[in-house]
């Protein structure tokens, strides 16, 4: 991963007199010049609304906007760009599945299955759906090292299960879940499989056809793209039968005084003017990732975790959550230092220019399950280096010295 740093202007920032070490990639990633240029280029040269216009700019904008749909489809191994729905992000995509598919398919007595490691975005929509339909929400447990307990999954998923929804990779534990196996199990029981791919698509090759899942959601901003743009992918036959949720311009084929016909998917879900610049930025982000290759990105992150995990583990008082084996995880490392609140730890790291996150990471049930109120979280991405890992370790050691021994 040589020379990537030149592509990311923000990584030259000085923070508290230190060079920025950005390790908050699970929250959002930095944007390369190529993405910034694509957005700027659109606004400077092609800015127009899509679909409706016959003028040249409208055609150029539409070509780019629709071209990204094909790019996304290819990126995740989808059959057809018409299965790719633009959303604001993972949260909106998951909400739409729950509100549109869920409300029209679930009944009292049906069961929805999630796990204890879900982000609130893949939990609260299902809680709401359960409240609205009388369905029951059930949880798959975790093993002691924070993996999905597959034996427990076999008990929890039954013929009553209508929907199983899991994260592909956890934003706290870093663990990669065996989606293919769980999907097979869900399908054996006649349930559909929904996947929150927010922490997977940016970091490893994902093929929705190979996984055989029914819906897959992810966010552009976690994969070098801009905020406010994400993807809901769904099997065509499921999207076809789902009602739209937002009504207005763009999503209609014919409007009468009292009745309206809607377009086919994906357009029937995309009411109003879309985040055109965001979509174009996402397309540039996909080009950038493809140029390097997701296999290479995954290996790079794994090498960093293999390097940093034993060093972090060796610091007395540090507890790390999630699998011990780097091959089972992404570049997300959550940890606590005994006797130091994670917010204080993160503030101390920030003084060294090291940006990590602290808190419940939108996963309060998981915090409860782990018996903690919060953790610190360092999360690596393609532009991070071994030096960043060294600086993280040094900053943690400095913080430990400061808080526990009262000196630098
Ligand atoms: N799921 C997971 C696993 C996440 O990490 C996140 C973002 N932290 C989300 C869902 C929500 O993504 P967004 O805020 O982009 O909608």
Mean model confidence by pLDDT:
97
Note the overall shape.
Answer: globular
pLDDT below 50 for ≥5 consecutive residues: which ranges?
none
Q: Measured on Cα atoms, how large is the radius of gyration? A: 22 Å
- The structural class is alpha/beta
Number of contiguous helices: 13
Instruction: State the strand order across the main sheet.
Output: 4-10-9-8-7-5-6
Largest sheet: 7 strands, mixed
**Ligands and ions found:** 4'-deoxy-4'-aminopyridoxal-5'-phosphate
What is the distance, rounded to the nearest whole angstrom, between the alpha carbons of the first and last residues?
Answer: 34 Å
Short recap of the structure:
This protein folds into 2 domains: 2-23 and 293-405, Alpha-Beta Complex (Aspartate Aminotransferase, domain 1); 35-291, Aspartate Aminotransferase, domain 2. 39% of the residues lie in helices and 17% in strands.
Description:
The chain has 408 residues and is an alpha/beta fold. The protein has 2 domains: 2-23 and 293-405, Aspartate Aminotransferase, domain 1, CATH 3.90.1150.10; 35-291, 3-Layer(aba) Sandwich (Aspartate Aminotransferase, domain 2). Helices cover 39% and strands 17% of the residues. The chain has 13 helices and 17 strands. It has helices at residues 33-46, 56-75, 90-105, 124-133, 150-156, 179-188, 208-211, 236-241, 276-292, 294-313, 342-351, 364-370, 386-405; strands at 14-15, 18-19, 21-22, 84-87, 111-115, 136-140, 161-167, 192-196, 215-219, 230-234, 252-255, 260-262, 318-321, 332-337, 354-355, 357-359, 375-379. The protein has a 7-stranded mixed β-sheet with strand order 4-10-9-8-7-5-6, with helices on both faces. Strands 13-14-17-16 form a 4-stranded antiparallel β-sheet, with helices on one face. α1 packs antiparallel against α9 (276-292). The longest helix has 20 residues, at 56-75. It is globular. 4'-deoxy-4'-aminopyridoxal-5'-phosphate is lined by residues 26, 89-91, 119, 121-122, 167, 171, 196, 198-199, 219, 362.
């Amino acid at each position: 991963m040589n020379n990537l740093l030149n592509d990311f202007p923000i990584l030259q920032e000085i923070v508290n007199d230190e060079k920025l070490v950005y390790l908050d990639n699970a929250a959002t990633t930095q944007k390369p010049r190529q993405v910034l240029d694509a957005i700027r280029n659109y606004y400077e040269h092609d800015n127009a609304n899509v679909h409706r216009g016959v003028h040249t700019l409208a055609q150029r904008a539409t070509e780019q906007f629709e071209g990204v749909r094909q790019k996304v489809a290819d990126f995740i191994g989808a059959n057809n760009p018409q299965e790719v729905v633009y959303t604001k992000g993972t949260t909106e995509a998951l909400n739409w599945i729950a509100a549109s598919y869920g409300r029209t398919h679930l009944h009292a007595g049906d069961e929805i299955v999630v796990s204890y490691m879900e982000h609130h975005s893949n939990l609260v929509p299902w809680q709401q759906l359960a409240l609205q339909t009388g369905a029951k929400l059930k949880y798959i447990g975790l093993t002691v090292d924070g993996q999905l307990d597959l034996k427990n999954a076999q008990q929890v998923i039954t013929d009553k299960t209508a929907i199983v929804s899991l994260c592909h990779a956890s934003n706290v534990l870093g663990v990669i879940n065996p989606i293919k196996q769980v999907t097979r199990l869900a399908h054996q029981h006649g349930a559909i499989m929904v996947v929150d791919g927010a922490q997977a698509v940016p970091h490893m090759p994902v093929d929705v056809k190979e996984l055989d899942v029914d819906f897959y959601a992810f966010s552009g901003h976690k994969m070098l793209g801009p905020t406010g743009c994400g993807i809901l992918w769904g099997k065509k036959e499921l999207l076809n039968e789902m009602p739209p949720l937002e009504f207005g311009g763009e999503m209609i084929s014919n409007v009468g005084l009292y009745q309206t016909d809607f377009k086919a998917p994906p357009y029937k879900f995309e009411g109003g003017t879309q985040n055109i610049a965001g979509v174009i930025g996402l397309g540039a982000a996909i080009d950038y990732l493809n140029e390097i290759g997701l296999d290479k990105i995954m290996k790079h992150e794994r090498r960093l975790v293999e390097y940093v995990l034993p060093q972090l583990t060796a610091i007395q008082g540090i507890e790390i959550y999630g699998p011990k084996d780097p091959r089972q995880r992404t570049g997300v490392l959550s940890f606590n230092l005994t006797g130091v609140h994670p917010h204080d730890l993160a503030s101390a790291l920030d003084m060294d220019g090291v940006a990590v996150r602290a808190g419940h990471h939108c996963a309060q049930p998981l915090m409860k399950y782990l018996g903690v109120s919060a953790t610190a979280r360092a999360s690596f991405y393609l532009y991070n280096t071994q030096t960043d890992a060294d600086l993280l370790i040094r900053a943690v050691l400095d913080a430990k010295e400061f808080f526990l021994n009262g000196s630098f």
